[in-house]
Write a structure and sequence with these properties.
Number of helices: 15
Oligomer: single chain
Number of strands: 0
Largest sheet: none
Order of helices and strands: HHHHHHHHHHHHHHH
Helix content: over 70%
Structural class: mainly alpha
Radius of gyration: 30 Å
Distance between the termini: 39 Å
Length: 391
Amino acid sequence: MSPTPDQRQEPSPSRTDAEPAWAAQEVRLTSALVLLLGIGLFLALPFILSIGAVVFLPLVAALILTIVLSPLADRLAAAGLPNFLASALAMSSFLIVIALALTLILQPAIDMVDEIPTMVARLGEQFSQLRGAFRWLGDLNEQLASVLGREQAPEVVLATPSMLEELALATPSLVLEVLMTFLLAFFMIESRVRLRRRLLDEGVSHNSSIKAARALRDVQDRVAAYILTVTLINLCVGALVAFGAWAMGIDAPIMWGGLAAILNFLPYVGPLTMIALLGLFGLGTSTTFFVGLIPAVAYLSLHLVESNILTPAILGARFTMNPVLILLALSYFSWIWGFAGALLSVPILLTLTALFDHMGHPNLIGFLFGEPLFGFAPLDGQPDEPPPETG
């Protein structure tokens, strides 16, 4: 006897159908917690890093130096040198380059200090002439102030420490941080081989060990290639600036070329600083206002050609980064560590970008619409294939 329609029951959902829904909810809840923790860490990190700058700044700088100098140490070791000697030679070569650059820049700058009062007086004359051409704006401001009945507010002068006092207070801490940075970088470079071997031997699985080794190798190659390429470009820019300063009869052309090369490591901010320095120097040493602007205008033209044509063509798409991300990283790390943070901002951003390429970028927009927060790249860079069906 067949059951009547009233006696028929709707099939209850099986446990196997409910498990994917519970798993998806669990993954989404975990992703939400990870996202909240990431936002909290991003907000708290500046205060932690700035308070502990004596510890964290040398550590981060040493990591960047290790990434940059490890390829040189690998080549020296491949040539037959012991690992310790190869690491020492790599670090020594970097220190020699830094000492040479500081000597070429600081010595002429110290000699130019005696000429600062004369340049300041000449600069005041240039601005006085320029102000005389726009005197009518000052007269209009005074007339408006008299009509509105405003009184000039008294000036308050705050006593601040002199530059020499601030330099004397900052020197011991600076020397300690520099020594700590170089020592950490040397020992990190010397232990790079053991680190790679440990990643391959002590991984949870062979697959994860290979992924970690490839990620570190890609970070090292990408950051080192970027910094080496940018260094060569900046050296060419410095050489052109030095030649232009010599052709214009500007004192200490090597100093100006070195400043241009160093400041060009700071995206956007460094070239603007160089333009301001050349403008102030030109106005302080020339007889007319417009002639004094020629060095700054010449450097601006060179920078426009270099940053918009030469550098993108040489670096290519592999090192192309979003300008918004560059400015955010520049402001973020310069706020935390000042000038040192500004110099390290682009290498840190490039390192994080290379790591995210291997670990997977967070899908923030898709997460708001129910998609997974993270997507992981396969081992060989190709799309994952579904596993074969078993009979």
